[in-house]
């Protein structure tokens, strides 16, 4: 190779490294782990220390293949702290094989078909005069509201969750981390 070829190769390598570094900088951190837009919802969620309960529940409900599939999905993902707010023994009971149908119902209530970014949700709220209804995979609706610049999600039982981390883009949709478990 000539010096010119080496120089071009070096410039290209540096440009690629800079691009990769910039791309990595844009990956949001959730539960101490970077979330990669090139990975699926499941591939990213298993790395979040804040979502170990959710991941265990998804596994117990047999929803891993679904949430790793092509989607797209918008997932309102409750943290471990959100699950800890439930009455004592609730999570342990729900992950038992005999409660799989109930667990599946609760988990699919957190999933909306399609990709709704925070900006999309805010536009729907504005269009809806202060709130927007989203039909979940489970079949019931979640209500999205905006207070200031923050998004909130409410279930049919009156529980309200705050979106603590929005727009965690995935290869098959988007995750919005929430601080309360929604109940259908």
UniProtKB/TrEMBL annotation:
<dbReference type="InterPro" id="IPR036378">
    <property type="entry name" value="FAS1_dom_sf"/>
</dbReference>
<protein>
    <submittedName>
        <fullName>Fasciclin domain-containing protein</fullName>
    </submittedName>
</protein>
<keyword id="KW-0732">Signal</keyword>
<dbReference type="Pfam" id="PF02469">
    <property type="entry name" value="Fasciclin"/>
</dbReference>
<dbReference type="InterPro" id="IPR050904">
    <property type="entry name" value="Adhesion/Biosynth-related"/>
</dbReference>
<feature type="signal peptide">
    <location>
        <begin position="1"/>
        <end position="25"/>
    </location>
</feature>
<dbReference type="InterPro" id="IPR000782">
    <property type="entry name" value="FAS1_domain"/>
</dbReference>
<feature type="domain" description="FAS1">
    <location>
        <begin position="38"/>
        <end position="182"/>
    </location>
</feature>
């Amino acid at each position: 190779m000539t010096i010119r070829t080496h120089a071009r190769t070096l410039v290209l390598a540096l440009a690629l490294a800079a691009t990769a570094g910039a791309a990595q900088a844009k990956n949001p951190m959730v539960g101490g782990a970077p979330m990669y837009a090139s990975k699926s919802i499941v591939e990213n969620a298993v790395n979040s220390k804040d979502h170990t309960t959710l991941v265990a529940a998804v596994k117990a409900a047999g929803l891993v293949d679904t949430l790793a599939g092509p989607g797209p999905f918008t997932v309102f993902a409750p943290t471990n702290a959100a699950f800890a707010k439930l009455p004592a023994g609730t999570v342990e009971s729900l992950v038992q094989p005999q409660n799989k149908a109930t667990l599946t119902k609760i988990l699919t209530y957190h999933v909306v078909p399609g990709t709704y970014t925070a900006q999309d949700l805010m536009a729907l709220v504005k269009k809806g005069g202060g709130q927007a209804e989203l039909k979940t995979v489970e079949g019931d609706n979640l209500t999205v509201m905006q207070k200031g610049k923050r998004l909130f999600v409410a279930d049919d039982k009156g529980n309200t969750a705050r979106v603590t981390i929005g727009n965690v883009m995935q290869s098959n949709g988007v995750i919005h981390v929430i601080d309360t478990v929604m109940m259908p």
